[in-house]
Amino acid sequence: MPRWESDAQGRLERAALELFEAQGFERTSVAQIARTAGLTERSFYRYFADKREVLFAGDALEAHLVAQVEAADQALAPIEALLAALGTADEVFPSRAFLLRRVKVIAASPALAERDLIKLADIADALARTLQSRGVEPGEARFVTDVAIAVSRRATSRWLADPDATFSELVVQATAELRVAVASPGPGATAD
Amino acid sequence: MPRWESDAQGRLERAALELFEAQGFERTSVAQIARTAGLTERSFYRYFADKREVLFAGDALEAHLVAQVEAADQALAPIEALLAALGTADEVFPSRAFLLRRVKVIAASPALAERDLIKLADIADALARTLQSRGVEPGEARFVTDVAIAVSRRATSRWLADPDATFSELVVQATAELRVAVASPGPGATAD
Questions:
Q1: What are the tens digits of pLDDT across the range A110-161?
Q2: CA distance B7 to chain A (A)
Q3: How many angstroms separate the Cα of B119 from the Cα of each of A83, B53, B105, B112, B143?
Q4: Per-residue model confidence as pLDDT tens digits over A98-114
Q5: How confident is the model at residue A95 (pLDDT cuts 50, 70, 90)?
Q6: Chain B environment of A87 (Cβ under 8 Å)
Q7: What is the full DSSP assignment across chain A?
Q8: A147–chain B nearest CA distance, Å
Q9: Is B135 exposed, middle or buried (0-12, 13-18, 19+ CB in 10 A)?
Q10: Residue B36 exposed, middle or buried by CB count within 10 Å (0-12, 13-18, 19+)
Q11: Among candidates B157, B158, B184 on the partner chain, residue whose Cβ is nearest the Cβ of A80
């Protein structure tokens, strides 16, 4: 069984995605999703708190990333520990094709886009707390987490567009791009 | 008149902040806010769409930042243009003391914290679009915007804690910190 979903949960997720694609998020009901998945509405609520939650399956990604950071070599700098962890995110992603459809459905619905922001912020909070438990000062933990999430978003959008690259390679590539971007003297020296 | 608020709008904002501090966001009504500000509930809705919106006054910050990026020297790299713009954000912030109280009230209410995330994402979207209109490729525009927002958040939390620093100095400092953080060989070279 894949780590991302139980079978019933997976059926509900796939049914929801298909319905959201076909008729939009707003016009799809929980009853419809359950029926399409061959399950009851009651079963739906065993897995998801509400209709929006169906595309944000549990805390698998957060749990995976936190465990990776916790297990990271103490000699790694905070940002290195985070980027190494984020580079393994594809181990808990569903397939690239599913993720791509999901991204499009989320972008088409303000309600889903808001939930997506909140979920990403929850993951960032968990990662910053994990860095703190490794002895990183809270402000620095928050900052490097925000930066690492930016790198990861860059890698994710490239990964969705490029079927040949591995996710961890794209994290390394985005990090290199960031290094070049901030290598210049900075705004204080150039913008005055 | 300060750019952040009209007089009636400012009174509503200050009344809301005081009530949220004293009794919490959930237990405060729009009617109470209006009454405390010496205004009618109808006046409240002339300025704000709902109770949450009262702490996110209009689009003053977004409009200021977009105008700064639009006016930036074309010779500046995208991230330099953004960081220079963000370094002037304190020109439209209310006082540091007001901002500090606001940050605490927002952190204490999940409903306000969600709205804060959405507002920040709206600002990031506007800045990324502005970079695109300067000829920056969409993926790069999104990435450098996410990074610049991370830098700006780091500068903002330091600015709230340190009454002696200027905001633009703190943006330069956070950028230097980022440069050091990503100067190492990166996760691909160290984490395997």
A1: 999 999 999 999 999 999 999 999 999 999 999 999 999 999 999 999 999 8
A2: 32
A3: 27, 10, 16, 10, 18
A4: 889 999 999 999 999 99
A5: confident
A6: 187-188, 191
A7: --TT--HHHHHHHHHHHHHHHHH-STT--HHHHHHHTT--HHHHHHH-SSTGGGGS-TTHHHHHHHHHHHHS-TTS-HHHHHHHHHTTGGGTS--HHHHHHHHHHHHT-HHHHHHHHHHHHHHHHHHHHHHHHTT--HHHHHHHHHHHHHHHHHHHHHHHH-TTS-HHHHHHHHHHHHHHHT-S--HHHH--
A8: 6
A9: exposed
A10: middle
A11: B184
Cβ-based contacts of A80 with chain B (< 8 Å): 184, 186-187, 190-191
Chain B contact probe: residue of A116, A147, A166, A173 with most B CBs at under 10 A: A147
B57/B80 Cα distance (integer angstroms): 27
ipTM above 0.90, yes or no: no
Contact A176 B183 (CB under 8 A): no
Task: Give me the percent of chain A exceeding a pLDDT of 90.
Answer: 78
Q: Distance, in angstroms, between B146 CA and closest chain A CA?
A: 5
Q: How many residues would you count in chain B?
A: 192
Total CB pairs under 8 A between chain A and B: 138
Which of B115, B136, B144, B147 should one mutate to test binding to chain A, selecting the residue with the greatest count of A CBs within 10 A?
Answer: B147
Cα B22 to Cα A95: distance, rounded to the nearest angstrom: 49
Q: What is the pTM of this model?
A: 0.88
Q: Which two tokens stand for residue A179?
A: 């290094």
